[in-house]
Write a structure and sequence with these properties.
- The chain has five helices and six strands, in the order ααβββαβαββα.
- It is an alpha+beta fold and 193 residues long.
- Strand 3, helix 3 and strand 4 form a beta-alpha-beta unit.
- Helix 3 (93-109) packs antiparallel against helix 5 (161-175).
- Residues 8-136 form the N-acetyltransferase domain.
- It comes from Peptostreptococcus equinus.
- InterPro entries: Acyl_CoA_acyltransferase (IPR016181), GNAT_dom (IPR000182), Ribosomal_N-acetyltransferase (IPR051908).
């Protein structure tokens, strides 16, 4: 992520993303560019979490972001989090491809052993996404944190390096152009491969 993504990401964190996407974020939708500027500068400077912009290859615009976080180099464990997709990115081939590319980076480039996904237990869309992407449910950490004035029970999911090869093959088969019809709808779901 860099300063060149500022305008695009301000749109993602404000007008391009529906209000319900902010329900389980620790921050709210940004109404003013001045407030987002401070938030964005902190994102740029941050090492953990390490924020990444999701770029649409056609438009060259940032249409979402996520972060690698809770980075444990000694044990080679890392978490994906702070996922915010604009309405353009939600439920798209690009969203799945972005998740595949970051997993490939984690398991093949930096050779981590464990890749985690954690979310508010009430966040059903996030839990469904984790399962669809191949994460295995590991349990519930009750009252794990407080945000927006309420307790959060955190659902934990993970993928381990031993599972990556099979998952990688599924992702690559799903992402093939032949798996999509002329309207861009999937022919086979990821969990059918």
């Amino acid at each position: 992520m860099s300063y060149k993504h500022f305008d695009d990401l301000f749109s993602v964190y404000s007008s391009l993303t529906s209000d319900d996407s902010f329900t389980y974020m620790v921050f709210d939708k940004f109404e003013k560019v001045e407030c987002f500027k401070l938030f964005f500068e902190n994102m740029i400077k941050s090492i953990d979490p390490y924020y990444l912009a999701i770029i649409d290859n056609k438009s060259k615009k940032a249409i979402g972001s996520f972060a690698l976080m809770r980075i444990d180099k000694n044990n080679r464990v890392i978490e994906i989090g702070s996922i915010l997709y604009s309405d353009i990115l939600k439920k798209s081939k690009m969203a799945t491809e972005a998740q595949y590319l970051i997993m490939k980076y984690v398991f093949e480039d930096i050779k981590y052993r464990r890749y985690e996904w954690k979310c508010d237990n009430y966040n059903e869309p996030s839990k469904r996404a984790a399962k669809r992407l191949g994460f295995k449910y590991e349990g519930l950490f009750r009252k794990a944190m407080v945000y927006k004035g309420r307790n959060r029970d955190t659902a934990w999911f993970s993928i381990i390096d031993d599972e990556w090869k099979l998952l990688k093959n599924k992702f690559e088969a799903w992402l093939e152009d032949s798996n999509f019809d002329k309207e861009g709808k999937q022919i086979k779901a990821l969990n059918e491969l």
